[in-house]
Amino acid sequence: MNRIFNDFKSHLRTPLLRSLLIALMVLMAVGTAYWYLKKHPNTTTAKTQTDDTNKIKPALAVTLITPSTQNLSATIGADGKIMAWQEAVIGAQVNGLQLREINVNVGDFVKKGQVLARFKTDLVNAELAQYNANVAEAQANLAQARADSARANSLKSSGAISEQQISQYNTNYKAAVARLNAAKATKNLGSTRVAQANVIAPDDGVISARNATVGSVAQAGQELFRMVLKNRLEWRAELTAEQIKQVTAGSSASITLSDGEIIKGRVRQVAPTLNEKTNSATAYVDLLSNGSARAGMFAKGEFALASSNALTVPPTAVVMRDGFNYVFVVNDKKQAVQTKVVIGRRNADRIEITTGLADGQAIVESGTDFLKDGDSVDVIAK
């Protein structure tokens, strides 16, 4: 027996056997702990619940206010671009002439009839001289034909000339008249081409673009300049289908530029149809003064609507949760009751409550961000 025990002790000294024994002891300890927890599962939870029950949540001190009726003016916000009221395209009216000089640049204010650019007129002046010579020749031929016709008609009664010859002279006279008229028309066309060699401003305005280049040979219809007529700008505001019902011609608007400048405007007209892609309509607002506004600028603005009385509360009394607006009333148990409301117009210090509150119903004035439905509160007199 002693020999067997000694052999076992000697095997215990080997690392492998020692590791196996340690693992066996760990497994036994884990199994014992698992058995105990399975038999007594609620011991720790019950203790935690007892501790939580014993904790008393302190009441939040609040003050109550009563919603008041105030006169509010409604506004509608919108975005849009500053654009030219009308932009004129000024092009070349002559064909094949070389541009000689340009008198204006982008941003210049011009008057109606002002010469913006000039083409070389050597060719058209030569053509006009030829047309004048043709007119002079046609006038001389007409004088000769008139005299021949008169002489032939005077000899008709004497029988010295035949009816056929008289008819021929009269026909020559009529043809001479026609040729003179044609020559005069061609001369007028030449005079017009000479006049069109000067590019003239069609109205007062400001040059918004210039494509003209000195030395270039223009083709008829080629764009040379663009001009904002009267330097008149407008704000094209994009409105939803609901908003467009509230904005009418004559409504006032305030447009805020990117630099913070505010410009007053007035609605000239509202588009009769909605954009199929954006489901929005455009309101055209005339700027009463341009200020620092420039065509192409993006701007935000507001439309002023009619004012009326409204039930209002301070902004601190309203809290938004999950996309809805709420206020808190206090019940007889001094508990905060979360009450859903619908808000309307607002200004710097008041918000309109359209539905959800009765007139005269007291609500929590501030601190609503820290309240939850059913919280105990301590009402403090103001």
From TrEMBL:
Q: Where is the YknX-like C-terminal permuted SH3-like domain?
A: 310-379
Q: Which domain of life does the UniProt lineage start with?
A: Bacteria
User: What is a single molecular function from GO for this protein?
Assistant: efflux transmembrane transporter activity
Tell me the keywords, alphabetical order. Answer: Coiled coil, Membrane, Transmembrane, Transmembrane helix
- Mind telling me which Gene3D superfamilies this protein's record contains? 2.40.30.170, 2.40.420.20, 2.40.50.100, Helix hairpin bin
Q: Which residues form a coiled coil?
A: 121-155
One cellular-component annotation, GO: efflux pump complex
Q: Which residues form the Multidrug resistance protein MdtA-like barrel-sandwich hybrid domain?
A: 88-228
Q: Does the keyword Signal apply?
A: no
Q: Where are the transmembrane segments?
A: 20-37
User: Is Transport found in the keyword set?
Assistant: no
Family per UniProt? Answer: Belongs to the membrane fusion protein (MFP) (TC 8.A.1) family.
Q: Which PANTHER family match?
A: HLYD FAMILY OF SECRETION PROTEINS (PTHR30469:SF15), MULTIDRUG RESISTANCE PROTEIN MDTA (PTHR30469)
- Designated name of the protein: Nickel and cobalt resistance protein CnrB
Primary gene name: cnrB
